[in-house]
Amino acid sequence: MISIDTKNLPEKQDKKKQIKCVVWDLDNTLWNGILLEDNSVSLRNQVVDLIQTLDSRGILHSIASRNDYDRAMEKLEELGLKEYFLYPQINWNSKVASINNIAKSINISLEAIAFIDDQPFELEEVGFSCPEVLCINAFNLDQLLDLPAMNPRLITADSKMRRLMYINDLERDRAEENFIGSQEEFLATLKMNFTISSAQEEDLQRAEELTVRTNQLNTTGYTYSDDELKYFIRSPQHKLLIASLDDKYGSYGKIGLALVECQEKIWTIKLLLMSCRVMSRGVGTILLNYIMNLAKTHNVCLQAEFIANNRNRMMYITYKFAGFKETEQIGNTAILKTQLTRIQAFPDYVNLQTY
Question: CB–CB of 298/275 below 8 Å?
């Protein structure tokens, strides 16, 4: 278990760890008192500032509390905090089950979650069953904002809008649940616009953030410094492409990135990634198919590098379905090549724009 106490705080944490969601207990954690037993409860000091500050850093919030759902949500609305909590798990299940449900709903790994509770037993149980989770005793809330894991190096426009983007996702999910028809018919109702453009300097912070935050739908896991990214956008031997998506519910932000090394007769896809948030929107192959069409137009061969980890197998399958075949292995890097004879058409339910 990774736990945070007041002793030797800097040594107790992995400084490379970055939290994407803070999961709060309620009683004697978010507020003072026990909702179902006390006449009234009051917010703990600085809680509002903590939640709002982390939200502005692009860190999400949720709840894992053994409580009465309706009473708790009514109290959160009364306190003006209801809008900050995504997929709240307020029930009588274990905190372990609740945290796993939150991770699944947001589509993040357990290692990207911090859990705050006032009960040592709850912290120990979560720490034992989910050792990747950063467990924090509510006694240490005054140190929360200073933790390296709570301080992303990059805070972009997309970061600041992250919670609102997830709220839009909830609206889409509710609409899909109530829709009668095929998935393609539902996707057509979203009126999606997928944009691919050459990255500009103003895109570089988001480009770097995507390489750091995207693990599952990432072909190599390469990360690049600001100087390297600036070099790529100016280099005639490279194409740095960035993709964004929006629909009738709002913007998903910049959700895809590709780096292509362009030699005279062969292009190499060094990096291809897509945000997990758009996994269910049927747009996962658009960026790859665009690159394939571009290579065919330039009459060059196309290959891709792939570095497997325990989470990105879906990207390997994406390459295979696109007609790429593994031809050699260099260290931990697989080289996959395609003859560009089978390029999928772009889906009818998406309007593609390129710049």
Answer: no
Give the homologous superfamily in CATH for domain 2-150. Answer: HAD superfamily/HAD-like (3.40.50.1000)
Spell out a b/e string for 175-194, using b for 16 or more CB atoms within 10 Å of the CB, else e. Answer: eeeeeeeeeeebbeebebeb
Q: Which of 3.40.30.10, 3.40.50.20, 2.40.420.20, 3.40.630.30 would CATH assign to domain 161-354? A: 3.40.630.30
Q: How far is CA 48 from the centre of its chain?
A: 24
Does pLDDT of 16 surpass 80?
no
Helices (H), the chain: 47-56, 69-78, 95-106, 120-129, 157-160, 162-178, 183-189, 204-213, 226-234, 286-297, 313-321
Task: Supply 224's token pair.
Answer: 């690049």
Number of neighbouring beta carbons within 10 Å of residue 173: 12
Report the DSSP beta bridge partners of residue 43: 31
Say if residue 11's pLDDT is above 50: no
- What separation in angstroms does the CA of 122 have from each of 45, 72, 93, 96, 177? 22, 19, 12, 9, 34
Contact of 336 with 306, CB cutoff 8 Å: yes
218: DSSP letter: B
- Cβ-based neighbours of 216, under 8 Å, separated by 6 or more: 276, 311, 312, 314
Per-domain residue ranges of the chain: 2-150, 161-354
Question: pTM of the predicted model, to two decimals?
Answer: 0.80
Distance CA 187, CA 318 (A): 20
Determine the Cα–Cα distance for residues 183 and 203; give it in Å rounded to an integer.
32
Q: Are 54 and 21 in contact (CB under 8 A)?
A: no
- pLDDT > 50? residue 146: yes
What does the alpha-carbon distance between residue 254 and residue 245 come to, in Å, rounded to a whole number?
A: 7
